[in-house]
Amino acid sequence: MKARAWASMLGAALLGGCFSFSVQTPGEPLPPQELRMRTDTRQFAAQMSESVQRTADAIAAQSTDPAVRAAALRWKLGTSVAIRRAAYRTIPRHALVDTWAFSEQMEVFFREGNGRELFGERQSEAVKETARLAQEARALAARHLDATQLARNGDLVRAQAANEPLADLDFVRAPVALSAVLAGAQPPASAGSATDVAADAIERFDLYGHSIPDEARWRTELLIGETGLKGSDVARLLTRTDETLRRIYELAETEPGKAAAMLEEARADLQRGWAVVDQRWVETLSVLQVERAALARTLESAQTALDATIQRERTAFYAALSQERTGLAADAERYTLRIVEEARSVAREAAVWFFGLIALVLGTTFAIGFVLGRATQRRGPDRGG
User: Fold this and answer.
1) 41 touches 86 (CB < 8 A)
2) For 247-286, b where at least 16 C-beta lie within 10 A, e where not — what string?
3) Phi/psi class of residue 120: alpha, beta or left (left: φ > 0; alpha: ψ in -120 to 50)?
4) 131 exposed, middle or buried (CB, 10 Å; 0-12, 13-18, 19+)?
5) Residues 6+ apart with CB under 8 A from 201
């Protein structure tokens, strides 16, 4: 009986003092608006790169000028690298404004800057395409910035395009100043929660997996074009060698002396031809090695930055977990004391009710006996009389 009573009291105390807890990952999660801004900016960057590739390929396909075809390759390569750097900046608003600024700079470059004559009679296609992209970049900014922010950042973008024009198709540029984009406010201390950082890292590596192979292929095509090594050159050399050998074979049957002289001449000519091919191939391989080393450094730098970010977030996670655990222990102790105190209170109340009930039962029994005794005494004299 006592065991059930104590179990009931303890259950009542627990139900009255139940609590919950949660462990939060470190860093403030990015607001939904910032996440949408980052996602839309990166999607626009991918669409921009694909659009430039289509336009550049169309220009190259309709031109026989090697300079125009090389410029089309450089345009694709420069856009892929520059838009990736702009759209994947850490702070979403900075990435949005810098992407907008790059699109404006590229439009000015082809319309009136150093790139205004790169594609000859096909120049209008590049001007039209870059103007459309600049307009879409501004529309993207208008969807995510209020009127005041749009006007202020629009001034930054126009100033960037006017004062820092792109020099060539490498599109080497300085980003829009972060302090100007944030209007003097302090940048966020974190790039988001650990989940946000992990999602950002996955997106970056996915981008590298798609863009870097294309960029390496375009660089190779440029290098082969610059060194002058072409498949047609090798084919002509082999055809000429085959023709010379055929003539030597025919002369060998009638005039062996002339055949021997022609054979020596053919051997010298073949050596000269293959020497040129070897030289150009060595030059191409040398440049490819340089490009491969540069690409390796780029990937290593990205990996180092990502590792540093993950380590920082992991440290913050463990610190937050330790703090949460300390708080949880304090809460558990506080609720334990509360449960004990409530159990004591319930026990005291039960004791009062228990003794009150005993007193009531005994008092009622005594009162009934007293009343019955008095009644019996009064009834006794009446009978005697």
Assistant:
1) no
2) ebeebeeeeeeebeebbeebeeebeebeeeeeebeeebee
3) left
4) middle
5) 306, 309, 310
Contact of 79 with 171, CB cutoff 8 Å: yes
Tally of domains in the chain: 1
**pLDDT score of 137:** 96
Dihedral angle computed from the Cα positions of residues 312, 315, 321 and 326, in that order, rounded to the nearest 10 degrees: -130
- Asked if the structure places residue 59 within a domain, the reply is yes
Q: Is 378 left (phi over 0), alpha (psi -120 to 50) or beta?
A: alpha
**Residue 174 maps to a domain:** yes
Domain of residue 44, residue span: 25-195
Q: Which residues contact 277 (CB under 8 A, 6 or more apart)?
A: 229, 233, 234, 237
Check residue 58 and give its pLDDT.
Answer: 95
How many degrees, rounded to 5, is the angle at CA 290 between CA 287 and CA 291? 90
Give every CB contact of residue 198 below 8 A, 6+ residues apart in sequence. none
* Domain annotation covers residue 370: no
pTM: 0.60
Collect all residues with Cβ–Cβ distance below 8 Å to 364 and sequence separation of at least 6. none
Contact 25, 197 (CB under 8 A): no
pLDDT tens figures, 70-93: 999 999 999 999 999 999 998 899
121 token code pair: 């009679």
> What is the amino acid identity at position 140?
L
CA distances from 110 to 12, 64, 68, 126, 304 (A): 78, 21, 14, 7, 36
Encode pLDDT of 36-62 as tens digits: 999 999 999 999 999 999 999 999 999
DSSP code, position 162 = H
Residue 208 near residue 302 (C-beta atoms within 8 A): yes
Residue 78 corresponds to which tokens in the numbers above?
Answer: 């420069």
148 inside domain: yes
**Beta-carbon-side half-sphere exposure of residue 12 (alpha carbons within 13 Å):** 13
